[in-house]
Specification:
The chain has eight helices and seven strands, in the order H-H-H-E-E-H-E-H-E-H-E-H-E-H-E. It is of the alpha/beta class. It has two domains: about 50 residues, RecR Domain 1 (Helicase, Ruva Protein, domain 3, Orthogonal Bundle), CATH 1.10.8.420; about 140 residues, Dna Topoisomerase Vi A Subunit, Chain: A, domain 2, CATH 3.40.1360. Bound molecules: zinc ion (ZN). The site of zinc ion (ZN) has 8 residues, from helix 4.
Length: about 210
């Protein structure tokens, strides 16, 4: 394909294909749109990507994406610090937040247990969660991992970690479809899922903690 495009165009089309679900055809369409129709938007996109890639990191308390050391969810003085909701992705956090049914703190795993991909407790930041639970003041861990084999395994490990600190762990379940990702579930269903959360029965010994 590279010989039909000029070098810069080939680079751009190649670069756009880093996006999920974007193949060569879509990338070509995006490139032509930006170059033919909206050069200003193309420049804005370039500046925005540059700033975001250089400046956005992870909140040192909850691991949410933010350009600040501590994100606004952790800084807020209006939230219930006795609850902490553990989720897999920043998109899941926003879905729970937008449901309006939760006002506690958050912890973002940035994935789920997946031994095949080398993702274990360390990669999920569980030592940081362990430290937060050790500080005290939390009396419920609301687990909102996905309803998949990996999400279930992750939920059990989190529950065992909570049990180690004598903290109750609950899991949202009601209405969340099997294999469902939180970000694609509507707010009403998510609100009911939060209200219908159930306690996870486990012990630290069960998870070898
Ligand atoms: Zn935070």
């Amino acid at each position: 394909m590279s010989n039909v495009y000029s070098p810069l165009l080939a680079d751009l089309i190649q670069a756009l294909q880093c996006l999920p679900g974007v193949g060569q055809k879509s990338a070509q369409r995006m490139a032509f749109h930006l170059l033919d129709r909206d050069r200003e938007a193309a420049r804005r996109l370039a500046r925005s990507l540059e700033s975001a890639a250089n400046q956005i990191g992870h909140c040192e308390q909850c691991r949410m994406l933010t350009e600040e050391t501590v994100c606004r969810f952790c800084r807020s003085t209006h939230r219930d610090s006795s609850k902490i909701c553990v989720l897999e992705t920043p998109a899941d956090l926003l879905a729970i937040e937008n449901s309006g049914a939760y006002d506690g703190r958050y912890f973002v795993l940035m994935g789920h247990l997946s031994p095949i991909d080398g993702i274990g407790p360390t990669e999920l930041g569980l030592d940081l969660l362990d430290a937060r639970l050790a500080e005290g003041g939390i009396n419920e861990v609301v687990v909102a991992t996905s309803v998949t084999v990996e999400g279930d395994a992750t939920a059990h490990l989190i529950a065992a970690l909570a049990a180690k600190h004598g903290v109750k762990a609950t899991r949202i379940a009601y209405g969340v479809p099997v294999g469902g990702e939180l970000e694609f579930i509507d707010s009403g269903t998510l609100s009911r899922a939060l209200l219908g959360r159930r306690q996870i029965e486990t012990s630290p010994e069960e998870a070898g903690l």
